[in-house]
Amino acid sequence: MKRYCKNIKLDADWIKAAMLECLSDKWNRMDVAGFLAGYTENTTKRELYRQIKADKSVVTPLIEKAAAEMAQEIATRNVTFPAISYSMRYDGNSGKIREIGVESIKQQIYDYVAVNALMELFERKIGKYQCASVPDRGQVYGKEAIERWIRKNPDKARVAAKGDVHHCYPSVNIKKLMRFLVKQVKNDELLYLVETLLKSYRQGLSIGSYLSQWLCNYFLSFAYHYAEQELYKVKKKKNGQTVRTRMITRQLFYMDDILIIGTRKADVKRAMQMLITFFKDKLGLEIKTNWKLFPIDYIGRDGKHHGECIDMMGYKIYRDHTEVRRNTFLRARRTFRKAWKQIRKGMSIALLIAYRCISYYGWFKHSDSNYFKAKYEIEQLMKYVKRRVSIESKIHNRTAGSTLAAA
Q1: Where is the Reverse transcriptase domain (predicted)?
Q2: Is 245 helix (H, G, I), strand (E, B) or coil?
Q3: What CA–CA distance (Å, rounded) separates 271 from 161?
């Protein structure tokens, strides 16, 4: 078996690059200043915070010192960081309450060190249609893939099965995950760092961790490749020859949401049952018992829609169009109405409403929502919203600069 990451050196230069990537959008945070203040002699985090606001170059020697000390911690097998704090948070997209782990800045940097070092492994093992948490492979990527499959080759996409893993992150067996990594990674320092980070989690993988996102995709990649390469049925012809035929034509994993597509109901059902067994026996994970087997939406001779759409990644995907999921649609419409109401009263759009409008706009931009966008004048609204955010950003930067100059 080929092993990866053997030429990676977790030295100060590697850690510095990972640190700069991790902190690139966090320089205005107090916890970043607190972390870097630990590498000064007598500067408080508030003083350093003000200095960073005035001139970011003050962090250069501190980053050098921090990277050197963290490299030494790895080399001497003495990596330390504050414990993770956990809190329950509401997920607006799914409607679920999730336990989110909030890591210290130091641990977040170690996450980036580990992910960047493991990237060779991830690029080779994570499947093409494993979406979520992988750059350029998010909701839109997965949605467009499904659209291609059911519209360009409808004869190969007649039936689908859809399910999801029960409590995926906390259910991942850390010992089993480490055994996979030990077999495929030839780098003792890297394996030590990953194991140290994994042991800091309360149970399984930690929701909210940058490293956990990648490791979850890697762990599930074994099931993805099983679905891609092993789900065959064997038939014997009259002449005695055996023929192996694919049970499914396509598979897509959106993190722990599983979708498989095929031509025959019996084949797709059997493939899903085999996949469920693989998850249980090989990965120690459970597919929820409420998984669905359904005929994919199609337009009959009567001109009407039959079957079911594929409801995944926030979209409802039909043979001839794509809609935004109902809950997202209602929240977005309410937000757009609030923005227009403020505009028509001559008020400035509330900044929070403006940010929400920008966030929701992406859903409608990538779906067939022309009627909705015309009815609520979404394109015109976005001009007001973007102008509001731009003005606020300029005011914030100008105010911060003048305050620091006066100080």
Answers
A1: 68-317
A2: strand
A3: 9
